[in-house]
Design a protein that fits this description.
By secondary structure, the chain is α+β, with helices and mostly antiparallel strands. The chain has ten helices and six strands; from the N terminus they run αααβααβαβαβααβαβ. Bound molecules: flavin mononucleotide. The site of flavin mononucleotide (FMN) has 11 residues, from loops.
């Protein structure tokens, strides 16, 4: 087959099943505009919106189609105050890991919106929901937790599409969550989420703007054929393309190149001049 006819065959195979361009755009927009949110407006979230977001989560992939998740919708103020107390204790323990400038930065970060958000949502995982014999679970025991994380991913993106902010709070203890919310011992609280409308979705992760971490150049994360396979210097087209704004042409009109990486991450971000996707906040 000539290169030309090969390219044509490939293009028509893609066209047969690809979603229309505006759907693709919507998906990528939701992915790139999703943010972890810690500042919320008090406005109530309509049940219909929340219902869509939960159904989107429920349509995630799950090992053996076990659907191991449950959703606890938390509006009760007293229970949330208890969670906030646990958060404060755990935050102090977290802070003890850092010193100097890093400690100062950590203490300045707002890392939750437990009481500001109009509602909190706990996504739990019930391993062995359908008994121990699960299709796809013989070799890896954590597969139900992986599945639950996929549900959270769906939820986060659907919420973004709805204009709803979501913030994941992991600075809490699962034993405390079990006690506060009467969660049985065999159920794992996977994600404690704050959910609500926002004043704005930041362009960049808050931890990036605060110079806590930077996004790594994607090509430094790609290996070819083995862990030790060449990454960026071997002339692989893919390694260059993942950093090229050109791949988004026609899909994301306001995608612009921007720098990534900070000097202290030089081991990962060499070539930090390479482009990354930086989406400007929507002005509508
Ligand atoms: C499993 C998990 C736990 C997280 N826990 C917290 C947390 O306790 N507090 C917080 O402020 N952000 C938390 N985050 C949010 C991350 O800091 C955030 O996803 C990251 O900085 C990238 O920002 P972005 O989500 O806006 O792209 C968590 C995210 C994940 C996936």
């Amino acid at each position: 087959m000539s290169q030309d006819s090969h390219d044509r065959a490939q293009a028509s195979a893609a066209n047969r099943h690809a979603l229309p361009a505006e759907y693709q755009r919507g998906l990528y927009e939701a992915i790139f505009r999703r943010r972890d949110i810690r500042e919320f407006l008090p406005d109530a979230v309509p049940d219909e919106v929340l219902a869509r977001v939960i159904v989107a989560a429920h349509h995630a992939a799950s090992v053996g189609f076990t659907q191991p998740w449950d959703f606890i919708v938390v509006r009760d103020a007293e229970r949330r105050r208890e969670v906030k107390r646990v958060f404060e204790e755990e935050r102090a323990i977290n802070a003890a890991q850092f010193s100097g400038d890093r400690l100062g930065k950590f203490l300045a970060l707002k890392l939750e919106g437990i009481l500001d958000a109009p509602l909190n949502l706990i996504v739990t995982c019930e391993p062995d929901r359908f008994g121990p014999a699960v299709l796809g679970k013989v070799s890896i025991s954590e597969v139900e937790v992986y599945s639950t994380c996929l549900a959270v991913g769906n939820l986060w993106l659907a919420a973004r599409a709805e204009g709803l902010g979501v913030g994941w709070v992991s600075i809490v203890r699962n034993d405390a969550l079990r006690e506060i919310f009467a969660i049985p011992g065999h159920i794992i609280p996977v994600a404690y989420l704050c959910v609500g409308y926002v004043q704005a979705f930041p362009d960049r992760p808050v931890l990036e703007s605060a110079e806590w971490e930077a996004r790594m150049p994607p090509r430094s994360l790609i290996h070819f054929d083995s862990w030790n396979g060449g990454t960026e210097s071997d002339g692989h087209a893919l390694a260059d393309l993942v950093q090229s704004p050109d791949i988004w042409r026609g899909l994301l009109t306001d995608a612009t190149p921007c720098d990534t990486g900070r000097p202290e991450q030089a081991h990962r971000s060499e070539g930090a001049e390479v482009p990354n996707i930086n989406l400007k906040a929507r002005r509508d």
